[in-house]
Design a protein that fits this description.
Structural class of chain A: mainly beta
Shape of chain A: globular
Strand content of chain B: over 45%
Distance between the termini of chain B: 37 Å
Radius of gyration of chain B: 13 Å
Shape of chain B: globular
Order of helices and strands of chain A: EEEEEEEEEEE
Oligomer: heterodimer
Number of helices of chain A: 0
Largest interface: A-B, 25 and 28 residues
Helix content of chain B: under 10%
Radius of gyration of chain A: 13 Å
């Protein structure tokens, strides 16, 4: 797999349920960032987790990072229809650029 | 809350024409980036810019591309002679003081359509 691969590719849940998306990467990183993109729109920054951190929270978002497994997860609790979007992880590995995955398309049904 | 802005939101151009995409990064940020996303594909890094010079560029960023910070606020991407395969959403981003550990904030994008 390539750097920053999310799974599942698509996820459909009911409002109120939790949504978990995973990201795997191959090389060592300095940080990992999660973004949301509504259809055809811009990228909204959600959360950054540094390589020396294991877990971070922001509102209904919880991100974990396991550097030994080279993986991260994004949990959205109590999902809402407005959470419907594509979610991307992006890794920073010591240079300026972020390397993005293909994303998970989340659909929250009302 | 400060945000990155981009103009235009949509640009249609003919193959071979020059286009300039404009961005206003967040005002106290020091690092600036361009990325692109071809429809249905990953977001790809093009170039990063710091202290008035390119600090990193990808293979995509060939001689047809250039970037400039013409004044204290704007950051532009120029494509000299557009090709059909340049059709994509182009995102500008900026980050603050620490280039390897700071959040990158993205603009809403410019959708470029080359016909």
């Amino acid at each position: 797999s390539q750097q920053g691969e999310e799974d599942p590719q698509a996820l459909s849940i009911q409002e109120g349920e939790n949504a978990t998306m995973n990201c795997s990467y191959k090389t060592s990183i300095n940080n990992l960032q999660w973004y949301r993109q509504n259809s055809g729109r811009g990228l909204v920054h959600l959360i950054l987790i540094r390589s020396n951190e294991r877990e971070k929270h922001s509102g209904r978002l919880r991100v974990t990072l396991d550097t030994s497994k080279k993986s991260s997860s994004l949990l959205i609790t109590a999902s809402r229809a407005a959470d419907t979007a594509s979610y991307f992880c992006a890794t920073g590995s010591g240079s300026e650029k972020l390397v993005f995955g293909k994303g998970t398309k989340l659909t929250v049904n009302p | 809350e400060p945000e990155v802005t981009q103009t235009p939101s949509h640009q249609v151009t003919q193959m071979g024409q020059e286009v300039i995409l404009r961005c206003v990064p967040i005002s106290n940020h020091l690092y600036f980036y361009w990325y692109r996303q071809i429809l249905g594909q990953k977001v790809e890094f093009l170039v990063s810019f710091y202290n008035n010079e390119i600090s990193e560029k990808s293979e995509i960023f060939d001689d047809q591309f250039s970037v400039e910070r013409p004044d204290g606020s704007n950051f532009t991407l120029k494509i000299r002679s557009t090709k059909l395969e340049d059709s994509a959403m182009y995102f500008c981003a900026s980050s603050g003081l620490d280039r390897v550990r700071s959040e990158q904030y993205f603009g809403p994008g410019t959708r470029l359509t080359v016909t």
